[in-house]
Amino acid sequence: MTSLAPQRFGRLGIFGVVLIMVGLAIIPFVTSTTGLRQASQIIISVLAVLGVNVATGYGGMISLGHGVFIGVGAFATGYYVDGLGLPWLLAIALGAATAALSGALVGLPALRIKGIHLALVTLGLAIVFQPLSKRFPKFTGGVSGKGIEARFVAPSWWPGDTRMATAVYRYLFCIVIVVLALWATWNLVNSRFGRSMRALRDNDTAAAVYGVDLISARLQTFAVSAGLAGLCGALQVLLVPFVSQEIYTPQQSLVIYATAVIGGLGTIWGSILGVIARTAVGAAGKAAAGADGFGPIGEFFDLLDEAAFVFGLGLILLTFLFPRGLAGIKRPKRTTG
Amino acid sequence: MDLVLLLQRIFDALFNSAIYSSLALALVIIFRSTGLLNFAQGEMATFTAYIAFVFLSGPQPRLTGGGLAGLVPGVPFPIPLAIIGAVICGMAGGAVTERALIRPLGRAPDLALVNITIGILLATNSLMAQWWGTGPRMFPAVFPSGAGQNFIILGARLRYSTIGVWAVLLTVLVLLVLLLRHTRTGLAFRAVSISPSSAELVGVRVGPTLMYGWALASGFGALAACLSANSVLLEPNMMLRVLVYAFAAATLGGLDSPKGALIGGLIIGLSQTLIPAYVPFIGFELSVLPALIAMVAILLVRPAGLYGTKRIERV
């Protein structure tokens, strides 16, 4: 249980922001268009993790199925931009809104189903999503997925229209959206609504006594959380104009959940740290996986390549060592109730 | 409606029913004693099916991942021995999991328990994918299940394999009931399930008792995985969907009722075969959707399920 006082930037926070900004500024100069696209994909994955964080960390509702909302956001955006011919910005906004709406629908049972049972329902949702989306080929392309005709290109004032220039434009666009979303979420969780959200998480009866409308607060929390994941899905379509149910596996949902928990629930920083940790683990794993000459133990190095394995173990270790995640390591334990 | 076809579908469904009942029993045993939904139950079970696979295929490094089977004397085993070996390994694994990962947490919040089980799920799943590959493996049939190996009842075929899995399940169930009713460990387990703190006060050692519970549950899971590996093909995600059916079965029967798990598994197995057969939109692959909807509906309307204990919460 954390204090309800607004979270402030410490010196460490400012240092972190500067470090991340420098890193983001260097990337376009040292990589190819493919590398830039991969960097953009990593950056937008912060949104999905943030979505889990809002539902689970701030709202106290465990969601193991946020991959579903990424998928809804991606499929919807693909349909709006291709099927309806809407402009990209509108399609992205509507895609996120569609995901938010689906989140509110899923939030309906969450009004009564709580804790570990809600985790069960959301896991079931993550498992059902793939076969379900195959049933709607008009939006999802069925089993094999479908390409999106429309391309997200830089406006005319952008200097250059080479592939690299377009990639840089998309990269910066993603960064701007993610920063805006982080800023908006930061304000939201420190607003009146954010306080009622956290009061609800800690003790819903007491929150209701103090005048928090439980139903609307829970539904809104779930909608915001799903909307963030949907925004991530929408930006995925912008980066790679192809949608397919194949990537929305239950494991993906669980890795997103693990990233949110490992980064630290209930702090905005946690979501960023989680994604950084996952990227670092993946990169280290790729380097170690190539190592030879360890006999049968070498197979274990190959496992490091799999973020899922490391994050599974990480989830177990962190639950014992740092229950508040990476972002909570530095913070002293507060004793507020 | 074609009655013979209906009867045939019911007979076909009974095989899956036994698998779901068995895995649901595993979930119920753990929920009853620790109040924890073990999301990793399916993956732990799949892992034991791979162990059985290693016992069966002997020391062929490419098949068994690093030639570990070479360390086991006497492989390849005949099928029954391989499955018994895998169930024993599974029970040991369950006991170790309880001792190493669950007991140290003590009275932790739901979130921590979910995190542990999800961690086990993710790690085990990618370990299996890395070690044995993601492609499906042929797993030999435990009971004769080829063409013509069946009884004909009222024109419908009842396979020997269906009778076989039910015979195994019921035998194990009888053993479980005998264990719970007529041994000290069983008595201790029943006491701990009802009230851990009271049981502790009268001198029951709660920790080891829960460890037996986890071992029993993992044994049921291992049995479910080994018996179904032939029909669903052995692959790392084999039990993921089965887990949803099992959870639906356990929820339907009441999460803390073993009898409920058995009957829930029966109902869910039947509906999994019958609903897609009569509702074209659902189809075979989406048959997991009705199970999920049933689960949500039960949790909303009657969280205690058919036979579960109604929980009264003080507000």
Question: How would you portray this structure in words?
Answer:
- The complex is a heterodimer of chains A (337) and B (315).
- Chain A is mostly helical.
- Chain A has one domain.
- A two-stranded antiparallel sheet of chain A has the order 1-2.
- In chain A, helix 2 crosses helix 12, helix 8 packs across helix 10 and helix 12 runs antiparallel to helix 13.
- The radius of gyration of chain A is 20 Å and the shape is globular.
- The C terminus of chain A is likely disordered.
- Chain B is mostly helical and 315 residues long.
- Chain B has a domain of 216 residues.
- Helix content of chain B is 69%, strand content 3%.
- A two-stranded antiparallel sheet of chain B has the order 1-2.
- The longest helix of chain B has 32 residues.
- Chain B is globular and about 60 Å long.
- The model of chain B has no long low-confidence stretch (mean pLDDT 86).
- Chains A and B meet through helix 5, helix 11, helix 13 and helix 14 of A and helix 5, helix 10 and helix 12 of B.
